């Protein structure tokens, strides 16, 4: 059996076939001048006022490592799809390195529709070939970071832990979701690999099977506690929650109990009463089980005696919005020796020409509006440019922040959004305008006849 | 930067922390007798009458390769979460190999709620530790294979190609989705890596950017065609679909055109007329753009002149049901030296005791009903046992079929479902019964007081 996985070594083939056939056609037609591509999303998913940018670090890893092995090029060259292609193209692939400039919005920055989250500028073939990988990596992490921000906000200061690896779209998705959830506001994850690779705090309790593997529930509780005397969270809903809650006093030094089923409001209240009655005020209550931002907001609203939430499926799949309308569009190309803006005028899928910069403005410390300008244009007033350069001619020119720093930055950024922007249901549109220059350019381009 | 990815080497740490803390507690308490875990889903997602099992091969790869490196064990041993654990446990991890028996339903088999799709039987710690990986790998691929089966069915004989890598939940999810989509009925994928690793047919056209990179649309078409004279699909909606359709006659030997926006019914009719008028009856029409099984069924119903569909986001995210209620539950354990059935009685989350086998019965060639029995029990009549053994004491005892064979098998299996079971909206429940023996055992177990 051959491992069916995307690795550092084979990521170059994680492309849609058309990226390689277009590359062959560009190469054969000597069309490989400077072009600019921008990655952005067209619309916000339901109930969201922003998207939290995430996934940049993995994108840069991929770009800096991008190459084709001899074996990969041989395979392509022998493939029927490429039988008519000149062998010189395959020599080009053998020597392929990514040499573009890459600008991006820092991870943890809230962004809005049409704002370029990433900008790739360089030889057309190189800029085109990375499309699929960039879209999948950035859209997924941004989607999950956004969902995490919503859930953490709904929890009103209570902790949220990512418990979703098992329901993610495969192992890598689980790992990436742990990372994105942490950026978005979770305090950590149950995923051990995410802890090892990303220094993300890891959390765990016990499963129902643990309780079931012993002769009695109490024996299971005590057996766990003997091995983890300083760090025991008891799962108390394998059989009967209230009966289990009464057993907590027989286990020394329990940190917390977890309830994973039933009416979490009623049960948490009953359990809190039992624990308090047994002088176990220090024992915290964690709940889990098909939670999302709306259920958590309701529990918080009801002032349920819950200290933390474990969230799985809904978080790691962004269940109510498992895809976003993210695209990677060419905005300039070199045509007849001159770099010129480009546009697509397909019905309902207009693209916006020209290389851009986003400027963000604040009022009383909070984000008040954004202006999308041409790259070298001055904004209407002094604002913060959001796109920063990360790669110059394919080389990394910025030290990447630690994940804990990204999380801290994201938290400050989210705090700069107005309260109404952070609501989990009613959606308010953040004001984003296109500069007059960009609008004129778009109008001019739409009038052409090609 | 350190690669943030799940690989063969680090997959052992793709666990929820509790699997390892439970392992430590089991080991320290000398609780590691034979146990059986079963993986199944509790409920069907909306509009589905079945789930198509997929992901088995990647599960087996993982299990056969499972081990901890010295560096990983050192990291765990130093982690705060394990500071109270006896060093003998870490020696156990250093020597860890997976030695369980594994039974599973073959990939491409339709399954129903509560039916064990996978059964793992062996030492408790080993059977427990693989939970997260198995759940994420099998649920994801099964979910996507199911969605693909729905979409391919809706297309009524027209071809469906997976175009979704860019919208999948990260690169690995895109790769796995390509595989699962192929099993479910797609004719192939745009993902080149899936073609290279899985011998899945790959398909591609061109992007809008290709058209935009040339001085005119016709120049772009001709430039592509020069390089791929025997295999040209033209994307005709970059500017104006009808104008572009009129240009097809100026490009020799075009296979197909693709329309990616607008009203696909109206546009495909207009384009077909233009092509036919130009004596281009052989040029096929492919459409794409936010398609799903319902939109495709409508286009097929209207008899739109469409030859194939490219489907992305909705397919690879299983957009309307991006998660399934899949669980991995212990059904037997060795308690006080004896293997005994186990059950969880949490509110709304009941588990079913005992190691099981599924029997499927046919009537006039079609699947008529299933019976879930105890493993060694005889079913009420002669039926086909669905669970087959794949691993014996951790070693693979079956040659895995080629992916094209899995796809053929899946197609025959889907054909054995009644028409009403294959509908994409109205849902009919397939009859699945629990044997009398299993029901009695469940009733007995629920009465216990633990």
Task: Give the second-level CATH assignment, the architecture of the largest domain in chain A.
Answer: Alpha-Beta Barrel
Overall residue-averaged pLDDT value of chain A:
96
Largest sheet of chain A: 7 strands, antiparallel
C-alpha geometry of chain A = globular
Q: Give the number of domains of chain A.
A: 2
Oligomeric grouping of the chains: homodimer
Number of strands of chain A: 19
Beta-strand residue fraction of chain A:
15-25%
Number of helices of chain A: 17
Widest sheet of chain A: strand order?
13-12-1-5-3-17-18
What are the salient characteristics of this protein?
homodimer; 450 residues; nicotinate phosphoribosyltransferase; TIM Barrel; seven-stranded antiparallel sheet; six-stranded parallel sheet; 17 helices; 38% helix
Descriptive account of the structure:
Helix content of chain A is 38%, strand content 19%. Chain A is built from 17 helices and 19 strands. Chain A has 2 domains: 11-129 and 324-447, nicotinate phosphoribosyltransferase (Alpha-Beta Barrel); 145-316, TIM Barrel (Alpha-Beta Barrel), CATH 3.20.20.70. The mean pLDDT of chain A is 96. In chain A, strands 13-12-1-5-3-17-18 form a 7-stranded antiparallel sheet. A 6-stranded parallel sheet of chain A has the order 7-6-11-10-9-8. Chain A is of the alpha/beta class and 450 residues long. Chains A and B meet through α1, α2, α3, α6 and α7 of A and α1, α2, α3, α6 and α7 of B.
């Amino acid at each position: 059996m051959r491992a069916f996985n995307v690795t550092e070594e084979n990521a170059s083939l994680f492309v849609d076939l058309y990226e390689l056939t277009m590359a062959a056609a560009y190469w054969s037609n000597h069309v490989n001048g400077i072009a600019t591509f921008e990655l952005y999303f067209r619309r916000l998913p339901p109930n969201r006022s922003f998207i939290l940018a995430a996934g940049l670090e993995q994108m840069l890893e991929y770009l800096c490592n991008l190459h084709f092995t001899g074996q990969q090029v041989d395979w392509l060259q022998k493939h029927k799809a490429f039988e008519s292609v000149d062998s010189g193209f395959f020599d080009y692939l053998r020597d392929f390195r990514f040499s573009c400039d890459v600008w991006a919005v820092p991870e943890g920055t809230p962004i809005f529709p049409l704002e370029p989250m990433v900008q790739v500028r360089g030889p057309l073939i190189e800029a085109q070939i990375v499309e699929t990988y960039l879209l999948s990596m950035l859209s997924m992490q941004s989607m999950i970071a956004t969902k995490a921000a919503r859930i953490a906000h709904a929890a009103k200061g209570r902790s949220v832990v990512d418990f979703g690896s098992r329901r993610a779209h495969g192992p890598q998705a689980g790992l990436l979701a742990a990372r994105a959830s942490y950026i978005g506001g979770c305090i950590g994850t149950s995923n051990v690999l995410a802890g090892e690779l990303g220094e993300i705090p890891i959390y765990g309790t016990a499963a129902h099977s643990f309780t079931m593997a012993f002769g009695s529930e109490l024996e299971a509780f005590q057996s766990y506690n003997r091995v983890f005397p300083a760090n025991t969270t008891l799962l108390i809903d394998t059989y009967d929650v209230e009966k289990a809650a009464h057993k907590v006093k027989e286990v020394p030094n329990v940190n917390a109990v977890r309830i994973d089923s039933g009416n979490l409001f009623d049960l948490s209240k009953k359990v809190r009463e039992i624990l308090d009655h047994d002088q176990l005020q220090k024992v915290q209550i964690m709940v889990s089980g098909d939670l999302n931002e709306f259920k958590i907001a309701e529990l918080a609203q009801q002032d349920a005696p819950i200290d933390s939430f474990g969230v799985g499926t809904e978080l790691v799949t962004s269940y109510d919005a498992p895809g976003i309308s993210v695209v990677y569009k060419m905005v300039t190309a070199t045509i007849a020796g001159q770099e010129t803006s480009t546009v697509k005028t397909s019905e309902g899928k207009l693209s916006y020409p020209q290389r851009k910069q986003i400027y963000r403005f604040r009022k009383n410390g909070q984000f008040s509006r954004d202006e999308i300008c041409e790259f070298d244009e001055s904004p209407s007033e002094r604002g913060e440019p959001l796109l920063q350069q990360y790669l110059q001619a394919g080389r990394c020119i910025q030290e990447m922040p630690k994940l804990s720093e990204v999380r801290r930055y994201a938290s400050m950024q989210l705090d700069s959004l107005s309260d109404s922007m952070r609501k989990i249901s009613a959606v308010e549109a953040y004001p984003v305008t296109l500069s007059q220059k960009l609008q004129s350019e778009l109008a001019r381009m739409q009038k052409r006849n090609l």
